[in-house]
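Q: Fold this one first, please.
A: Sequence and structure below.
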Amino acid sequence: MRAETEKRTFRYTARWHAYAALIAGVAALFVVEGAVIDVLIVILVHATPVRAVLLGTIFLLHVLVLAAIFLPPLLTCHHLSATDLSLRYGYDRLVIPRAALVAARPAREPVDLLGPVRAQTQGDRGRIVAVFSPHGQVVLTLDHPRWLRMNGSEGDVTSILINVDRRDAFLAALGLPTHRSPQVTDTSARPSVAGIV
């Protein structure tokens, strides 16, 4: 049996074909944009060394922007310990005490086109959405509304939608009931369990 202090790691999902299609589409747009810029540079800049530097710089900037946007979600994961759950999505990270979690249930909700690129707080629905694909989704319910911040947006949150590649193992490791409504409390005090670290 695992030690209680050991952290268990859960990656997003092994099924990332929709995300690959998004990356391919944006990369194709970058190629077209880069080609137009390259043609303009070749036409307007006559000095060969300057032209070479400009073309190389444009290419490097395109590669760096694509990597900065699309690689972080592929390289990060969630960690579960005996005391807390660390949710990582790209550059964003929330650390939530396990005592603040009252329920966890499987889900399958559609993913927006840009949903896999960044996590977001949906203040109108009272939740954070940090999903990579429609597969392996889990809805975590908090004990009461909490003021959380994710990716520059913040709001009162009662649930968090994430996904993991081994959903059944994740739910078993959490050991929470599948449904429980959060307690309604005065949110003016804005209790917080986590923020971007």
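Q: Good. Now the second chain.
A: Here it is, same layout.
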Amino acid sequence: MLDKFIGYIESGQYFIASIVVVFAVLVNIEKIFSIIDTQKKKRIGLLKEAIANDALSISLKEHFKNEIQGEYFYQAHKISMDKFKRDLVLDAHIKLDGDITFKQFKLANNHIAVVDGKLNIEISKLDSFSYYYNMFFGVLMAIAGFFLLFIPVAITDPTVYQVFYWLIICVFLIGFGFFMILQTLPLRAAKRIRTVINALEKSF
């Protein structure tokens, strides 16, 4: 695989070389994740050994315990948060009886902040603009891609190259359109969390 990649680079076939790289990553994606997971487990093991070391101070051991909790929390929910935010999210999840899922907390993570010891959802004007921008143009591009799929049918005796080239354009438009729509999910989750948390605070 490496020889082919180098050969394509030397011959100036950069597009094919990039396809080889993507294919290699996809084929070995399970091994890559396995290596990352192994490294995380080694880190947890080292932290546990450090906690058992009497030579370390109590404050350092507490820090390592928090690190272990953070690693397990990430492995369980794929969310990276500091201790204060993590504890508040767990508390909110329990109080809301699972009304807000950890997947929603993960999506809205960049909008979640800790202010005065409480969870605060921060949504700027730029965030709102990006939401409507991505939604509008995402839907527009996806619809355009679907409609353009039917154009080769109207062409008299299209060549295989023409059909293939047109399909690539359509797939790109549809794929990029859905990608833009997916970018709106974090803000939608943030708004949902803010609404539920505000209702929870008013009930107390």
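Q: Anything worth noting on the second one?
A: The longest strand covers residues 112-115.
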